[in-house]
Each structure stands twice: as C-alpha cells, then as structure tokens.
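Narrative summary of target 7.
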Amino acid sequence: MKTNDIKTYLIAGLVNGLLCAPLASAGESNMTSPDRISLFKVSLQRPAAPWIGCGSASKPILLDLERQPGVLEAWLNRAGTRIAVVWKPDSDGEGRRKIAAELKEDHAVEIEGKSRDEDTKDFLSGKGWYRGADVNRLSEEEAAIIAARLVHWVQAKTPLAKEKVDGLQRAVTDTLRKDLTGESAAKNEKPPRIEDVARKYLDQEQIKILKDAIKNEVAIENGERPAPNEE
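Modeled conformation, tokenized:
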C-alpha cells in the first residue's frame, strides 16, 4: 500500500530551509445481496490523525480495486480499518480469490463469520463509508487537523491577533490539502513550503517557532511522539 507521506513532504521542507461527509453513500449499495460484498480488515490510518482513515494512502488502493475485473465498487470506512468490496453480479469465485490474495499481500485480512455479518450490516447502513476519490474528504480533514496543531503550537508561544491566526490556519490547511489530496501533483505543481505561506502572517522569530512545530509534527508522523487526542 503506497502512501503519499506527509513525513516526506515535511522533511523535504526542513532540508530546504524550513525545515484525509462522503460525496457518495454506501447506502446506494444497500440493495446489494450480502454475498456480493467482501470485507477486509486494514490499517489505513496515519499517526497524525489515527482516528480517521488516511485518504492519500487509501485512494490509490480503492481506485485500483475498481479497475479490477469483477469489482463494482470499493469503499473505506471512516476509521480506516475496513475496506468493503462490492462484486459485480457476474464475478466468479476465482477472480474474487485472486483479488483477496492480492489484498492479503498488502496486509489486508478478509473478515469472516459473525464479524463479517456485523461489518456488512454497518456497510449497508450507508453511514461513514467513502468510495474511491471521495476519501479526499478525509485528507481535507487531516490537513485541517495538522494545520490547527501547528498554529496552536505557534499561538501558545507568541501572541497572535485573531485575524492572523485565522489567516495562517487557512493558508496552512490549503497547502496541506493540496498535497494530501494530490491536487498539486495532478496539476504538476510543487506545493509551497509551509514557511513560505506563513510569512504573510508571521515575523522571522515566529517562523522559527513554526519550524519547531513542524519538527514536532514530523516526530508524530515517525511515531516518536503520540498525536494529541483531538477526535
């Protein structure tokens, strides 16, 4: 499972001087027979916001699944712990087993028995599941969480007027959003460094504080520090 890792983005910034509501509803599939649904246990969260699924990690997996013969839809639950695969009516057992085996290679475990029944019921409820590119919504939420944490760090160490706090958070959120959703890459653009977008709102001493905040965020992403419980 390939991840568009914010850690890489932030570390690159350090080297250069600065160093994820669904659009579609699973309820649309609630007329699907349960035997056309397979559930897999996954770990698609990231340390920066471990209580929600990671959009940048899960999107390529979901989109790739939907390109496979026999797959009608692929969904991720909000927590990033389950993938639901809805099979086409004409899918066969061999094709299903092949895809399940490929997911297993990526550390996904097919869910069976009572747990499968419970997860299928949850999926068919249509609440809290994201299909394909809709996981960008999770990336947008993750960007806002990280931006808020960075701004809070700066605000705790230096006085900032409310308009600067609001402007800084919007700017940092937008920068991270473009990177995490792949918007910048799709446009062949390099996302600006957080430092650069922050200069409009912070003086040089405050930029140094922001650098410390970003170092702390890298430590969270590396698993060296726990993320604050902001759920």
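The CA atoms of residues 63 and 132 lie 5 Å apart.
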